[in-house]
């Protein structure tokens, strides 16, 4: 009877941590959507909204860190429970960095708008859409406890890298052909790199989620089932 009560209590506190993690993830996702919506738009004062969302993400990151520390100190979890808490803490760190990159993307998109140089955002939008879909997918996988979907997302990292290389090479060539566009194109390259880094963080989250659920660490050589 006591054991059942203890298990239920841990499940409750873990659900609280997971809910905070998902809330943090949705905020970071919304930041990314808002930032990439600025591509090709006139100058707009988005700083207050972006900074407010970023502060909420930072607050949730700190809250999760405190929650995990408190649970470990009070309950001294073992095995599966410890693995879940460690994974939550690591995922929160990656989500905080996703939000930071989204904030930087918004700032650089605003700089491009202020400079007024014509820029082709087609490749950058495609890259941003791919990264956004991955981020949304991993958040759904966390909510559903879906290791198989997490592994699929983890395996798509090379696709993001390939799209990043295309954007980089295209705008590097534009810089060489039209030197007066160099300043704006440089901002595009920084944005593309931020998007590529968000993809890396999503890959990290997918790997941690698989470990959380299955206890197995993914390897690039792995192609089989998770069971």
TrEMBL record:
Where in or outside the cell? Cytoplasm
Which keywords, in A-to-Z order, does the entry hold? Cytoplasm, Phosphate transport, Transport
Keyword Transport appears in the UniProt entry: yes
Please list the residue ranges annotated as the PhoU domain: 21-108, 124-208
InterPro entries registered for this protein in UniProt: PhoU (IPR028366), PhoU-like_sf (IPR038078), PhoU_dom (IPR026022)
From what superkingdom does this record's organism come?
Bacteria
Cytoplasm among keywords: yes
Subunit structure and binding partners: Homodimer.
- Recorded protein name is Phosphate-specific transport system accessory protein PhoU
Species this chain originates from:
Thioalkalicoccus limnaeus
The top of its lineage is: Bacteria, Pseudomonadati, Pseudomonadota, Gammaproteobacteria, Chromatiales
């Amino acid at each position: 009877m006591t054991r059942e009560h203890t298990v239920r209590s841990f499940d409750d506190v873990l659900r609280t941590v997971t809910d905070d993690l998902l809330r943090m993830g949705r905020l970071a996702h919304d930041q990314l959507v808002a930032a990439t919506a600025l591509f090709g738009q006139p100058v707009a004062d988005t700083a207050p909204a972006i900074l407010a969302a970023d502060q909420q993400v930072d607050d949730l990151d700190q809250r999760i860190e405190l929650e995990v520390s408190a649970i470990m100190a009070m309950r001294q979890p073992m095995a599966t429970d410890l693995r879940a808490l460690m994974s939550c803490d690591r995922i929160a760190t990656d989500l905080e960095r996703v939000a930071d990159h989204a904030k930087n993307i918004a700032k650089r998109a605003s700089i491009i708008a202020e400079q007024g140089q014509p820029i082709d955002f087609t490749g950058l939008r495609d890259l941003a859409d791919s990264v956004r879909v991955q981020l949304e997918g991993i958040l759904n996988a966390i909510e559903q406890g879906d290791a198989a979907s997490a592994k699929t997302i983890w395996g798509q990292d090379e696709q993001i890298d390939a799209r990043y290389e295309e954007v980089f090479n295209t705008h590097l060539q534009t810089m060489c052909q039209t030197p007066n566009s160099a300043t704006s194109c440089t901002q595009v390259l920084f944005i593309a790199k931020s998007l590529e880094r968000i993809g890396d963080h999503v890959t990290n989250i997918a790997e941690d989620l698989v470990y959380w659920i299955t206890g197995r660490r993914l390897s690039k050589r792995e192609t089989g089932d998770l069971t």
